[in-house]
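Morning. Coffee machine broken again, so started the prediction first thing and wrote up yesterday's gels while waiting. Chain of 96 residues, entered below exactly as on the submission form.
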Amino acid sequence: MPIRVFHLIRDEDDSGVSGTGTVAEVFEASDGTVVVRWLSNMSSTNIYNNFKQVERIHGHGGKTRLVLVYDENPSKAEPVKVDPIEDEQSKSEPPA
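Came back before lunch.
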């Protein structure tokens, strides 16, 4: 598996914590481990076992996307999409 780098772009920020636009740099190691470096004034670094964990935690119901910045092997690059997922708050709210 190649080493890849992404920007995590948030189109809407319901929490008001990370903001919008490019809010994190995401690095995928050759073994599938993913490191997320948050760029806000509350910067932190998180490590995940795989992209599925990142999607579940940071997808924000489709309000977040990953944009490929670098691929060690660009001829075999596959697009990565953060799937829309419901967070706990939206599950508890009645439909509009």
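The longest helix spans residues 51-58. Going to sketch it on the whiteboard this afternoon.
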